[in-house]
Amino acid sequence: MRLPIDRLPLRWLAAVLLSTALGSGASADVPSFTSAGDRSVGGAEIYSHICQGCHMPGAQGAIGAGHYPKLAGNPALVSWQYVALTVLHGRKGMPAFGLPKGEVVDFLAVQLSDAEVADVVNYVRSNFGNHYKGSITAKQVAALPHPGAAAGSDSIPDHR
Question: What's this model's pTM, rounded to 2 decimal places?
Fold first, then answer.
């Protein structure tokens, strides 16, 4: 007996679709950002695979189905902590990409390790007309609150 599609669990359906796409080779060139340490990728690659879909290839931002602020020449990027916390926790509709500390990782969510967060923060702060000094490390990112920590995303200041 076949169940109607609206009765199938959403995660199961997503897993089937994902496995079909991966099995067909459609995502063979896309790295897996879901498990820390599997593969070393740089900030440019992370930006091109995750961030530029909303912020655009030149980091000019976009307005349409949502508001995606420009990262090019953005003075809010002076604070590496603000950028890192935004990547870790998300904000205003942007998903959280930080790995939860001490929690089970959702295999369908795109999550970045502390090193990957540091890489993409350093990349954005030093490209697209941004010339902010200093690079951050995975150790500095690890010291910040992560998803599931007591200090939630409400503690992120609103810099525009």
Answer: 0.68
